[in-house]
Amino acid sequence: MLTKIMRSVALAVLCFIVAPTLVVRAQSKTTPSDKFRQLEEILPTPNEQRAASGAPGRAYWQQRADYQIKVELDDVNQRITASETITYYNQSPDTLAYLWLQLDQNIWKQDSDSRLTQTAPNLERLPLSQIENILYARGFDGGYRITAVRDAKGTPLKHTSNKTMMRVDLPQPLAPGASVAFSVDWNYNINDQRKIGGRTGYEFFPKDGNYIYEIAHWFPRMAAYNDVSGWQHKQFLGAGEFTLEFGNYRVSITAPDDHIVASTGVLQNPNAVLTATQRQRYEQARTAKTPVLVVTPAEALANESHKPAGKKTWVYHADNVRDFAFASSRKFIWDAQGHNVEGNRVMAMSYYPKEGNPLWERYSTHSIIHTLNVYSRYSFNYPYPIAISVNGPVGGMEYPMICFNGPRPQEDGTYSAGTKYGLISVVIHEVGHNYFPMIVNSDERQWTWMDEGLNSFLQYLAEQEWEENYPSWRGEPQNIREYMASMNQVPIMTNSESVLQFGNNAYGKPATALNVLRETVLGRELFDFSFKQYSQRWKFKRPMPADFFRTMEDASGVDLDWFWHGWFYTTDHVDISIERVRLFQPFTGSPELDKAAQMKEREAEPQTLSQERNKSLPKRVDEFPSLRDFYNTYDELVVTERDREQYQRLLQTLTPRERELLQTGLNFYVVDLKNIGGLVSPVIFDIEYMDGTREMMRIPAEIWRYNNTEVSKLIMTTREIRAISLDPRLETADVDMANNSFPRRPVKSRFQLFKDGQAQPNPMQLLERKQPAPTPTPMP
Ligand SMILES: [Zn+2]
Questions:
Q1: pTM for this structure?
Q2: Distance between Cα 650 and ligand 1 center (Å)
Q3: Average pLDDT in the 736-765 region?
């Protein structure tokens, strides 16, 4: 309270000029504010591109870009040299005088906005390795060198780089329905991912002198042009990912001849790059029941000490993808398993160095197939022919048909539970991104939650189908409580680059919100139908937040504006308190019953301390009995003949039904609730009666629609209530459970006394007592 008063005093001093405006605007007569107000005032007006139902409109359009790329990976200098021909199809109703391309590699330039806006690290305690990394970053010569931009005839095109974007000026404006082809040549130095991070880069293995390359946002890509933002050319700062167009790709990747290349798309020339044995194993994998090794650990180990004799070119083709990535290394072990997703044959494949085993050979490909099964059930059948998981330096990052995942066991081959489940979860998550945003192509640079939140939600569902009690990190409402109560946060509906507490805001909170929506607000049947509707409406299209919000309402038949408003547009949290429970019992009208009951209550009232002490004092009326009169003996609770006559007269005026109503014997309990957190939520009571029976009562959030800070709920029962608990199954993310029970119960927890010190070995090392794996030696 004090801080509030002081703040308003300060505001009054500083803002006295604008204060009258604020007073006028404040909803002084609407306290509290209307949390059920319809979102139409905030959402964009529906139009021909985006219908009021949340479906693509009848005039929906999107651009298309096809790519033919030749790229060479230089394993000696860690460089990419490439050229591309882009064919851009203007399917918009607008004439375009110039085109914008994304140059995301430019984030590594010394003068990039990303670098310049980095804030100081905590210098009070800086590990040496971090200084090493800061020095590396300062010396790294990253970013594109664009060496040519030409039209289809080879004539140079005027182009201007603007940080992570490039404008190409067209000699003639590109009319609606027309297409234009042009080419770009470029090269760049690949970043050491272990030193400066990133969603792409290389990892160097000092023990054997080899590299793993994970190559992404490596070619100048068409910026998206759409009906909502025009060109989406918000600069790349590092957090907001990639907003892209669909198209077909043909990519020739030249690498040292002892490398294995994993890539988006289908390999077009297996005879030129794979041995007869590898091809045979690959064919065998198509119908195998478990993963088949295409490159065995022994072969990969032999490759590690190999020196390339030349180069090989791997040709890949991919249809209808929004991006293209690949990985390359001579360290790769490669396993594959064909899988049928409702009629679509998919090759699920994993590529990993020996350092990834035994985790990767056991879990990666299984996790891919599991993801395809679960996600396809909730959205649409996986449409691509390939799904790949690669182990390398990048902790977890997604691209069409391929993703990069980091977790590895310790050097002795043991691992913690966190690493094991971390790997399964990250593979599920990154493969899951094929659905959102690789196919449901949301605007990632603007809205991180539209891909990360929806994907984290499905990830949770997939994890729970992996094994019973899978330790999911996100999805369960109770796991988000601490974040929801924290102060340093912004609404989910915040631009990707401005999000605070990124993981909780864009992954955890929307995933939890959808879980609450599914389990508690809509129920599984309505939710699953609606979510599938959204996925199917927008696959291979570009949805915006309103399209999601509207589709979920359109398909479920439930007004969810309050839910979107509370969970997505505010930082409110759920904290409902049972303030008190009041018991009302009606008079029956019968003086015998009513007065007896009142007398019983009077007798049950405690004697006050003073009353007790005053009792023994001599009284004046005892000394002078003549002072006593009628009122000294009159008791209003003693039934009189007059009371009985009055009751009989009353009964004569009542109908038989009215007489029954007087004798119901019902207890009227009024439960007073307070909404402390501000986020309106369904109210779920677990009522325990004196006779040992229990009852669940589920009340929709609309109970708060007239007053969203305080409401009272009536419970009528012939039984007596012993206790009530609110949200007993932990489904609403109520951040303070201490005020959720009547009567209040102690909040139990345990604490540990510990000695600070060394890192603990993982349980596998302690309990499995397995022999440390010998240092691997080359096999024959
Ligand atoms: Zn993600």
A1: 0.91
A2: 73
A3: 84
